[in-house]
Design goal:
The chain is built from five helices and seven strands. The chain has helices spanning 2-28, 30-35, 45-52, 128-144, 154-161, and strands at 66-68, 74-76, 83-86, 92-95, 101-104, 110-114, 120-121. It has a seven-stranded antiparallel β-sheet with strand order 1-2-3-4-5-6-7, covered by helices on one side. A hairpin with a 5-residue loop joins strand 5 (101-104) and strand 6.
């Protein structure tokens, strides 16, 4: 009877260890996995995963980039106006050099834009591709510094997130 109890405890503990490792692996390597997952054109999963998992991923010391990990997670230029951050509603805010604010959803569809005078701008007049290029130029050095995971769990990441970015 004692052998059965010890084996059960061992199996449960091993299961917990594996579950925790997989969870940490997926969060800390989310940007790497997002870069390599299939997606529909216009989707930017690496930007979403970078901001959502900023506390977990590698935040390399890159000149000209600062991170805010408390509350609203942000990648920004020190003493600059440009930043990318998340909001509590799972939406993403980008501010450019002219204090224009852009709000995106998780599928990186532009929801609205406010100009520097806090006036809402018709999003049909905004070049979304240009804005996304600006955002990528801000965070690309951070994305490029993300290393390949020791144990690649891309298939699990794809199972969890692929439908979200289709």
């Amino acid at each position: 009877m004692k052998k059965i109890i010890w084996r059960t405890i061992l199996v449960v503990l091993l299961g917990i260890v594996i579950f925790v490792y997989v969870k940490i692996n997926l969060k800390s390597n989310a940007v790497y996995y997002a870069k390599n997952m299939p997606r529909v054109e216009g989707q930017e999963p690496e930007l979403v995963m970078l901001i959502d998992n900023l506390w977990w991923v590698d935040n390399p010391d890159i000149e000209g980039i600062k991170y805010n990990l408390d509350g609203v997670r942000t990648v920004k230029i020190p003493n600059g106006k440009r930043y990318l951050s998340n909001s509590y509603e799972k939406e993403y805010i980008y501010s450019d050099e002219e204090y224009n604010f852009y709000k995106f959803n998780r599928r990186f569809e532009l929801l609205f834009m406010l100009n520097d005078k806090d006036e809402e701008v018709n999003i049909n007049s905004v070049d979304k591709n240009k804005i996304v290029s600006e955002i990528k130029s801000l965070v690309q050095p951070v994305i490029d510094k993300q290393s390949e995971p020791l144990i690649n769990l891309q298939w699990i990441f794809n199972l969890l997130y692929q439908d979200e970015f289709k």
